[in-house]
Amino acid sequence: MIEHTSESIVITDAAGNIEYVNPAFTRITGYSRDEVIGRNQRLLKSGEHDQALYEEMWTTLKRGAVWEGRLINRRKDGSFYTERASISPVRDAAGTITHFVAVKRDISHEVALEIQLQQAQKMQAIGTLAGGIAHDFNNILGAIIGFTDISLMQSKPDSPIYKNLRNIRKAGLRAADLVRQILTFSRQAAGNRKIPVAVVPLLKESLKLLRASLPATIEIVRHINVPEASVLADPAQIRQMIMNLCTNSFQAMREHGGVLTVTLDKLPAGQGPGAAILAGGPGIELKVEDTGPGMSPKIMDRIFEPFFTTKEPGLATGLGLSVVHGIVHDLGGEITVDSDENRTCFTIRLPVIEKPVVAQNTDEDLPPGGSESVLIVDDEQAIRETCRMMLSQLGYSVTTSGDPREALAMIKRQKDRFDLVIADQTMPEMTGLELLHEILRLRPDLPVILCTGFSEQLNEESALREGARQLLLKPVTCMRLAESVRNVLDANPPA
């Protein structure tokens, strides 16, 4: 019976020397019977438990009681596994303990699932917290960036204040990027517009920028073995993924220098590592490898946790790899890490698409303004004022309201007064979506742009499906607002 059970059976003498093991034991541990018979069961110790656990185990067994618990042991090949053990003492006719019988079940898979669940719950909890503050924080940043944009438009480039304003704007955008990073690792970033993105140019561009910022002690070696490949993503996601991985590698080599090797290869459909995610077509494999000190298994188990870092305080936020993890999974890919004493390698596999790449608009000039009438609805006074000033400078006739019910009353009184409505999603009494539905009931032809600092209920796809003409993510720059207003009005000219 015990020869055929799936549970590991071990019989030892009173000193813990092994006298019998069943086939399940040899299958789980990798040891043959001949290799363990006569040896002490200590050969399985992993070093993961402190001495107190073993002292408690032997105290329990020597008094004749059954010991039950969870053990992390080491296989013959050095890998760890977790098992749930029940160890019972065996007495002879005189009542002396002569043997111990251990019945053990390998629960490594269950433990892995538990860890994944705990990680998911942790990411969800922090993501919920991040989402809760994102809306208010983005409104604050919107006012900072908005008023700065207006001041830049009103200042001459050679004036003393112009450079200071540019630095304020740059800091505001960096803060907005940090909010996006926090939301990205929790996979709650709303409204990322996915388009076919050429990976090779972005990779080359990122490495070029990185080279300028790294010390001469860091050598960058690149092996781009793919002439072209496109993935469905937000271009900012790809840039951020590359830069975060490379920055992490640089920090590992900061003290003594080293070599940063970046490799891009093509993967055939459904073959080799990552076959599960590439079952529907070919993919790419990006490897970022450094020669810095490696990571222990304990650290590797935690590197994708938000806010976990081995760096000194002030040198890292602990978000970089969490952000990469969130981006990769958002793009339908996978990320793995391999590390030893003097090497760490991150491998990312992503599915590619066979679609033409959409050219990105890099024109920094403000688009033409207009004379149309625009209604801005937002409960934040600073946001209303910045949007009003931005659009007024471009020639638009702008009306603002902090109450969606008041805005709706304006439209009811003068149905033909407005050519466009810009509404915030998160407002007291009525959400932007609810206001949108009421507006479309009154005037189905009136275009509405929705804005959000963060909303679990709203992304670009759902906003368009509900009838909005566009979704803007706060904080909104002057350029982005002007461009969106002009595009929507041109696509929906007033009657």
From TrEMBL:
<dbReference type="InterPro" id="IPR011006">
    <property type="entry name" value="CheY-like_superfamily"/>
</dbReference>
<dbReference type="InterPro" id="IPR005467">
    <property type="entry name" value="His_kinase_dom"/>
</dbReference>
<dbReference type="InterPro" id="IPR003661">
    <property type="entry name" value="HisK_dim/P_dom"/>
</dbReference>
<dbReference type="Pfam" id="PF00072">
    <property type="entry name" value="Response_reg"/>
</dbReference>
<dbReference type="GO" id="GO:0000155">
    <property type="term" value="F:phosphorelay sensor kinase activity"/>
</dbReference>
<feature type="domain" description="PAS">
    <location>
        <begin position="1"/>
        <end position="64"/>
    </location>
</feature>
<dbReference type="Pfam" id="PF02518">
    <property type="entry name" value="HATPase_c"/>
</dbReference>
<dbReference type="Pfam" id="PF00512">
    <property type="entry name" value="HisKA"/>
</dbReference>
<dbReference type="InterPro" id="IPR000700">
    <property type="entry name" value="PAS-assoc_C"/>
</dbReference>
<dbReference type="InterPro" id="IPR001789">
    <property type="entry name" value="Sig_transdc_resp-reg_receiver"/>
</dbReference>
<feature type="domain" description="PAC">
    <location>
        <begin position="65"/>
        <end position="119"/>
    </location>
</feature>
<dbReference type="InterPro" id="IPR003594">
    <property type="entry name" value="HATPase_dom"/>
</dbReference>
<dbReference type="Pfam" id="PF13426">
    <property type="entry name" value="PAS_9"/>
</dbReference>
<dbReference type="InterPro" id="IPR004358">
    <property type="entry name" value="Sig_transdc_His_kin-like_C"/>
</dbReference>
<dbReference type="InterPro" id="IPR035965">
    <property type="entry name" value="PAS-like_dom_sf"/>
</dbReference>
<dbReference type="InterPro" id="IPR000014">
    <property type="entry name" value="PAS"/>
</dbReference>
<feature type="domain" description="Response regulatory">
    <location>
        <begin position="373"/>
        <end position="489"/>
    </location>
</feature>
<dbReference type="InterPro" id="IPR001610">
    <property type="entry name" value="PAC"/>
</dbReference>
<feature type="domain" description="Histidine kinase">
    <location>
        <begin position="132"/>
        <end position="354"/>
    </location>
</feature>
<keyword id="KW-0597">Phosphoprotein</keyword>
<dbReference type="InterPro" id="IPR036890">
    <property type="entry name" value="HATPase_C_sf"/>
</dbReference>
<dbReference type="InterPro" id="IPR036097">
    <property type="entry name" value="HisK_dim/P_sf"/>
</dbReference>
<protein>
    <submittedName>
        <fullName>Diguanylate cyclase/phosphodiesterase (GGDEF &amp; EAL domains) with PAS/PAC sensor(S)</fullName>
    </submittedName>
</protein>
